[in-house]
User: Fold dihydropyrimidinase from Paxillus involutus ATCC 200175.
Amino acid sequence: MTISLKMRCFQIENMNDGGCAMLHTPKPSRLDTMIDTLPPYKTFEPRSLNGTFTIVSSDHAPNKFDHPNGKQRGLQHGNLPYGKFRYIPNGLPGVETRVLLLFTGGILSERISPQKFVEVTSTNPAKLYGLKKKGAIGPGFDADIVIWYSQKGFQPFKLTNEMLHHAIDYTPLEGIEFKNWPRYTIIRGRVVFSHGEVVGKMGYGQFIKRGKSSLPGPRDVWFSEWRP
Assistant:
C-alpha cells in the first residue's frame, strides 16, 4: 500500500514477529484479534513515485468476528484462557476500502499524483490481465468511470463498519479519517453506485476472460529455483 497504517499486533503463546511492534498483553483484546493477519501490518514510506509498485491490489480474505469459527477464537480456545494464535482465521476485509484509502493517503496527502493513482489502480491491472477495453477512457473502451466528490467543501469523516456494504461484522479501518469518497461509479455507461448506495441491478455484471498481458516485465526471468 502507499499509505502508512500503524496497527497493533499481539503476542499469544510466544508467537513473535520481528517485523511487527507487538502489544505485549497477557490477554489479547477484541481489537487485537480482529486485526490479526500474516504477514503483519508494517509502517513504511510509500515508494510509488520511484516506480517500485506497478499495481495496488490485494486479495479479500474476510472472517466474521462473532462466529463460532471467526476471529473470536483468538480470545479463548478450549482450556487456553489466553487463546491460541494458530486458531485465529487469517486475513482481513478491505476490498471496498482499498482504493479509497489510497486516494486519501496517496493523492490528498501529496504522496502520488492523480495520474499515478489511475495507473496503479486501473490502467496497469487492465494491462496485466489483457483486458483491452478496460483501464482507460477513450474510443473503443468501456465507459467504466469513478467520479469523486469535489474536494472543495467536502467534510472529512471517520469510517464506521455500518457505512460499508460487506457482510462482515467489523472493519480494521474503524475510526480512520477519509478525506473523500466516490460519488458515482459507472460501469459500461450505467450508474451502479450513487451517493453511498448501490443502485445497479443484479446480473448487470459480466464475466470477462483474461487475455495476454501487455504489461512490460521480465516474464522469462525466474527469481528462485521454483518453477510453476
